[in-house]
Amino acid sequence: MSSRDVIFSRIRTALADVPNLEPEQDIPLNWEYGKPLPLPDVLETFVQNCLDYKAEVERVPAAKVPEAITKMLKEHKVRTMVVPAGIDDGWRKAAEKGGVKLIDDDPPKTHQELNEIDAVMTASRVGIADTGTIVLDHVADQGRRALSLVPDLHLCVIRADQVVSDVPEAVQRLKPSVQAGQPLTWISGPSATSDIELSRVEGVHGPRNLLIILAE
Amino acid sequence: MTINLSISPRRTPAPPPGTIGIGQPEPVASPAFRENAKRQLQNTQMRKNLRHATTTIRNKRLLRVAEVPNWEEVRSAGAALKDRIGRHLDKYLAQAEENLTKAGAHVHWARDAEEANRIITGIVKSKGVDEVVKIKSMVTQEIEMNEALEAAGIAAWETDLAELIVQLGHDRPSHILVPAIHRNREEVREIFNKEMGQYGTPPPDKMSNDPPILAGAARRHLREKFLRAKVGISGSNMVICDTGTVCIVESEGNGRMCLTLPETLISVVGVEKVIPTFDDLEVFMKLLPRSSTAERMNPYTSMWTGTTDGDGPQELHVVFVDNGRTNALADPEGRSALRCIRCSACMNICPIFERVGGHAYGSVYPGPIGIILTPQMRGINSAIDKSLPYASTLCCACADACPVKIPIPDIIVHLRNKIADKKKHDMHPHLEPTVMVPVNWMFNSAKHFEFVQKAVSFAAGTALKNTDYLGPMPWPASPWTRARDIPAPPAESFRQWWKKNRGGRR
Fold first, then answer.
1. I need a labelling partner for B238 at 20 to 30 A (CA). Which of A161, A182, B299, B343 fits?
2. What is the residue range of B466's domain?
3. pTM of the full structure
4. Partner residue facing A184 (CB), from B77, B261, B303
């Protein structure tokens, strides 16, 4: 008997007392999926919770996004930045205006090369107000996962209509991406650890700087 | 003196001798909990570190939980979903296997630790590499995978900061979420200074014990290992059955490094870790971060559904591990322990854990969940496993904290029963069942109870006139009274008082 068969047979023996019902009938669930959280101001909560996690946030009208990009990159003295293939052309120009040398991931950069680049700029898929989270689904305007991981600064632009109140709404919005086979990365603030005396320290292996531009 | 040259040097720092794993061929040699606890209690530094850490996280958890208006409903949904999974596990595992395979992952099945290690070692060896980077994972601790890989000449580098502290410190984890919770910053600095340079990038000269500086040293030390790694190993917090998605919840980004940079990724998953649908994620992503690190959301969560062209590992393996889980599943009164999502809220709130620390439990799973999970998975044969369900005051704080409502105290009592029955069955003379015979007689009828009360009050009124409490007593009461004082029995019982003052009216 294969190990698979052994395990399945152990499980069936162990569950001899369980009635032969559909799981949903056997254990019904009193739960409404995808319910929004009533918040007085979703966008303001998003900004506050991102700030609480030590991300830097700029809330600007959509037309002013390029301006904000130039300003933030200048402030952080970014010299080189990798950009995914599908990034907005106006954002590219704004970065270059800030004196940043843009590097395309084509052909794909090696890990070592990525490690020597200062920053990365991406769009995003969903923002979650209640938890201060942005979620990437790594399509063309966000690029492969390594891009938003290895460089030490991540500049992420999110549109106001992408921000939802809470996790359940976000899960519903992310479902099509997962069904299309896209990986997801949920990001809440810069990399952090609480491993030494349970006191939170920002900045371990992921980007130590997370800059978010919220475009209204 | 002869030196055996056939023994090649180790690749990674050696852990202490013995085992805290589950499903190991060697029997568990740890002394009973009571002996371990006594030794650990003498470590005042550890107790201080633990008190500070658990108090911090406990208070923060309450704050984060209070922010969720429907917390109790979310808990109930989590508990129900986990029950649904456990009671129909064969169906869900078959679905998970089908969808993982469809997405392009290779699915393996391991009955026990030995088989899981054989599968993992085989995959790593087939890639022709002699090192792997790994994410902190309880199941790989449980099967003691690092030592199995070491025996095959493969170095498994721990990349979680706390696991790195434990590995470099030739130590064992003492907590499922914060494995180095027993160490303070100064101890961490000493370990890094002494060991880091022997295994890669050394720490900076004159490094201070400031946590950001220590975290920075770990970042530099591990970066070269991440960049060159060809194989990564992870556990998994959830495998989603209807999409074939694997999910990892973490803080530091070491997880993302291990999941993204290597060419091959092996995820080792306990069979109970599946969740039915992607929709169900909303329940667990609310419960887990607030209950574990007491955050609204953990810094990073990664999910992947098979391979993606040009992004991340191009070869994915998922190893489903039983290793005693089906033993727990077979006990209808104990199986809800398998709801556990490894958040550690129960240990952070436990008065016993706070004082003795994780090492006293002789298991990778310490604290309240450990004392019900370990004996169910490992059996109740060794001294340590038989003693674990007694490592509790039954104060029930754990049951309140548990995000999936595991009735931990009920299962503790259930297991104590099983252990007492087994001792009776094994014909071991044992105190507890013997004492319980007269106790049973006493509680069996009101008359018996009154008789005992009268006898005790009489004894107290004559022999113990000037005492408020009874200190250590001779055998057979000695094991119980060694660490407890019994208040002296009152001269008059409530029943006697009632009879006198209320005329015995009911």
1. A161
2. 431-502
3. 0.93
4. B303
